[in-house]
Specification:
globular
């Protein structure tokens, strides 16, 4: 492994990246969150306590680590402050432990309002967003009407930009959606500055910090949010998130040059089956008793929204695609124990579209909706894998399942998670 490691979701998110990052942070100096916003959710379980993190990197729960929220993240300050309060039992002082990019964009109340109005207006074609204002915040960013953390250090400049942004949001709400709003510039200004006061000492030039750290050979772990299949460019568009949730977002999300990022080892995290939240094509989705079984055994409900996740057999077509896009050097398979006790386990190795068998992942959502999975059926295992910590303890059928993943993706499986706790995993 190189001095830098990238941990990415290889499916539609919720793969268990938080646990993997938490496990690996002991070997790294910096843990970096580089895209998305509070629409992400990483859960780390320590003993009998569960910590749900949405903006703060999972490494915050380990002492002596520098955790960075870089410029590619859009930040709702009120949610960041609330999240900091929730982990005060673990972190009593964030200075020297959490750094926030001065170039990161802010999610404001009007972004959340526009997100809700947009979803409500889509009759029968909802994307299924978390309604956290993430999409509208990125729209402001790329429309050059966004407001960054750095702007808050200049109150007069900030207030003028905020006034213009609020007026624009009011016009959109009224003229596009027919809704009059009570958005108040002064109120939003006062609330924002109140939250900013609590995080101002943590603001830094994270791009410079990372550049210097990597030039010196310090160890950096990059923590992706969501999953590759939700990437704005390469995912199942338009049913995607609003940022590059694949390795493609590393350079623009951190301000690092490709020559440094290219030296990193990249691992993809995949469940032993597949889930997704929200609308959009899902070729291996199960709507039978197996789908319900996976949901209940895997506790498949969204960390951020609480919504039940759609479930399906492992899709190796999508996993091969994710591997190609990200350049995976290794795979981490989570929730292997959820498949315990099944007579058979299926994996999709190809799709059939209008009678033609394809092994590559289509771009068109219309084509994806037509896809019928071509399954390879494997023998299930009756022995419990829950909590196992040694490869020699795994049933032969579980090892064959892992071998099939490696053969189909041409990528080695480096770790298997056998439960939610920190110590429930196997290095392979």
């Amino acid at each position: 492994m190189s001095d830098s490691l990238v941990i990415l979701g290889s499916q539609w998110g919720d793969e268990g990246k938080g646990k993997v990052v938490d496990l690996l942070t002991t070997d790294f100096d910096y843990i970096v969150r580089y895209q998305g916003g509070s629409n992400a959710g990483h859960t780390v379980i320590i003993g009998d306590k569960k910590y749900a993190l949405h903006l703060i990197p999972s490494g915050i729960l380990r002492e002596g680590k520098k955790n960075l929220i870089t410029n590619g993240v859009v930040i709702a300050l009120e949610e960041l402050v609330a999240e900091m309060e929730k982990i005060k039992d673990v972190v009593d002082n964030f200075e020297g432990r959490l750094y926030i990019s001065d170039r990161a964009h802010i999610v404001f109340p009007y972004h959340k309002l526009l997100d809700q109005l947009s979803e409500q207006s889509k009759k029968g074609s909802k994307v299924g967003t978390t309604l956290k204002g993430i999409g509208p915040a990125y729209m402001s960013k790329y429309g050059r009407t966004g407001i960054r953390i750095a702007d808050l250090f200049e109150p007069t400049y900030f207030k003028e930009r905020l006034k213009n942004a609020v007026e624009e949001a009011k016009k959109i709400a009224e003229n596009v959606y027919g809704v009059k709003t009570d958005l108040d510039t002064q109120k939003i200004y006062d609330e924002t500055m109140g939250y900013f006061e609590k995080i101002a000492p943590l603001v830094a030039d994270t791009s410079l910090m990372l550049y210097n750290a990597m030039e010196k050979g310090e160890k950096v772990l990059f923590e992706g949010a969501q999953g590759t299949m939700l990437d704005i460019d390469m995912g199942t568009y338009p049913y995607v998130t609003s940022s590059n949730s694949s390795a493609l977002g590393l350079c623009n999300g951190t301000g690092l040059p490709p020559k440094l990022v290219g030296k990193a080892t990249v691992w993809g995290v995949s469940k032993a089956y597949v889930t997704r939240v929200g609308a959009g094509p899902f070729p291996t989705e199960l709507k039978d008793r197996h789908g319900e079984l996976l949901r209940e055994r895997g506790h498949e409900y969204g960390t951020t929204t609480g919504r039940p996740r759609r479930t399906g057999w492992l899709d190796l077509v999508a996993l091969r695609f994710a591997s190609r896009i990200n350049g995976f050097d290794g795979l981490v398979i989570t929730k292997l124990d959820v498949l315990d006790g099944l007579d058979e386990v299926k994996v999709a190795v190809a799709y059939e579209i209008d009678g033609k068998v394809v092994k590559d992942f289509p771009a068109s959502p219309v084509e994806l909706e037509k896809c019928k999975p071509v399954y390879k059926t494997l023998k299930g295992w009756k022995k419990s894998t829950y909590g196992l910590t040694d490869k020699s303890q795994l049933p032969e059928e579980a090892l064959q399942f892992i071998k099939t993943i490696e053969e189909e993706t041409k990528i080695p499986v480096v770790m298997v998670s056998t439960g939610a706790e920190r110590n429930q995993y196997i290095w392979l």
